[in-house]
């Protein structure tokens, strides 16, 4: 290719393999095949193609290194800025989709997110999971079904959500009661469950770190439309982890983590006011698919 064009870079098309990437690949191949080696090879090949396309200056390269360094500085046991970065790039949702595809008719899986807790005590059907009673009352009624529409009696339904200010209980342990807006229900013999709660508010992902600054520089938002999380398990079926979104939330078309799918949008229906107070209801079906070989239905990360 060299010498065919006048400009110093014109001979490198975006997808040309750099000499360095070729040599990296050759060295790896000499070490033998492994999944790690294949991943390293694909990553380096992709990075070099990107560099050939973008041609970053030295200063831009340093800025990128500074950004990644800052993401590392923000990550600790309480705040995972790397996961947030993966979330807003759509990477977390893509990996979830690839690992947990669901057949037509089954409820789609989504990421669980960072606020799930597995230690919630079992709550009786009909319980009110709003342990501080703050917010607009919401009655939720649903059924756990198989692909043929039969109820899955005894299925376990875990639920967690933000409060009417868009905050989860474990984000503000000093302001909300333990296990506020979390429940663990056992569906009845027909797969039915119901509980009382309050209408969740949407929220904004952390904007104060490097990922927030990047999104702001790109003119992109960090909003998540209002939703309730569910995790449903039943013997012989793949565990379903999903969100049900309020279809009337103005942010429904711009979820920062790309979790919204048409099947997961629902109406939080207004009911006649109860004692002068606003009230609403949500009815839903959660459809599980039979356990398939090698699939647990839950992602390894969270
Ligand atoms: C959530 O819905 O709780 C969530 C999911 C992914 C990233 C951040 C929050
Ligand atoms: Fe959430």
Automatic annotation (TrEMBL):
The enzyme's E.C. designation = 1.13.11.37
Kindly give the SUPFAM superfamilies that the UniProt entry links to this protein: Aromatic compound dioxygenase (SSF49482)
**Pfam families per the UniProt record, alphabetical:** Dioxygenase_C (PF00775), Dioxygenase_N (PF04444)
| Source superkingdom | Bacteria
Question: According to its UniProt record, which cofactors does this protein need?
Answer: Fe(3+)
- Stretches the record annotates as Disordered: 1-20
- The secretion signal range is none
Q: Where is the composition biased (Basic and acidic residues)?
A: 1-11
Enumerate the spans annotated as Intradiol ring-cleavage dioxygenases domain.
140-168
Keywords per UniProt: Dioxygenase, Iron, Metal-binding, Oxidoreductase
State the family it belongs to. Belongs to the intradiol ring-cleavage dioxygenase family.
Task: Tell me the PANTHER family matching this sequence.
Answer: DIOXYGENASE, PUTATIVE (AFU_ORTHOLOGUE AFUA_2G02910)-RELATED (PTHR33711), INTRADIOL RING-CLEAVAGE DIOXYGENASES DOMAIN-CONTAINING PROTEIN-RELATED (PTHR33711:SF7)
Protein name as annotated: Hydroxyquinol 1,2-dioxygenase
């Amino acid at each position: 290719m060299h010498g065919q064009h006048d400009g110093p870079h014109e001979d490198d098309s975006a997808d040309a393999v750099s000499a360095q990437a070729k040599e990296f690949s050759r060295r790896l191949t000499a070490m033998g095949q492994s999944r790690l080696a294949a991943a390293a090879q694909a990553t380096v090949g992709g990075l070099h193609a990107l560099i050939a396309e973008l041609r970053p200056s030295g200063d831009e390269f340093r800025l990128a290194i500074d950004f990644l360094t800052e993401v590392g500085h923000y990550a600790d046991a309480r705040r995972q800025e790397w996961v947030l970065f993966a979330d807003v790039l759509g990477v977390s949702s893509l990996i979830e989709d690839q690992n947990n595809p669901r057949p037509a008719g089954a409820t789609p899986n989504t990421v669980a997110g960072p606020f799930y807790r597995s230690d919630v005590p079992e709550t009786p059907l009909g319980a009110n999971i709003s342990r501080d009673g703050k917010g607009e009352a919401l009655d939720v009624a649903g059924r756990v079904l198989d692909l043929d529409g039969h109820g899955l009696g005894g299925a376990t339904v875990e639920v967690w959500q933000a409060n009417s200010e868009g905050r989860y209980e474990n984000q503000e342990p000093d302001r909300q009661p333990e296990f506020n807006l979390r429940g663990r229900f056992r569906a009845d013999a027909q797969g039915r469950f119901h509980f009382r709660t309050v209408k969740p508010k949407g929220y904004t992902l952390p904007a104060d770190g490097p990922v927030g600054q990047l999104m702001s520089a790109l003119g992109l938002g960090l909003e998540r439309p209002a939703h309730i999380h569910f995790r449903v398990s039943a013997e012989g079926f793949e565990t379903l982890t999903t969100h049900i979104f309020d279809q009337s939330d103005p942010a429904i078309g711009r979820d920062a983590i790309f979790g919204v799918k048409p099947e997961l949008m629902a109406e939080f229906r207004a009911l006649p006011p109860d004692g002068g107070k606003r009230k609403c209801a949500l009815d839903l079906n959660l459809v599980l698919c039979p356990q398939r070989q090698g699939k647990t239905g839950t992602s390894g990360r969270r």
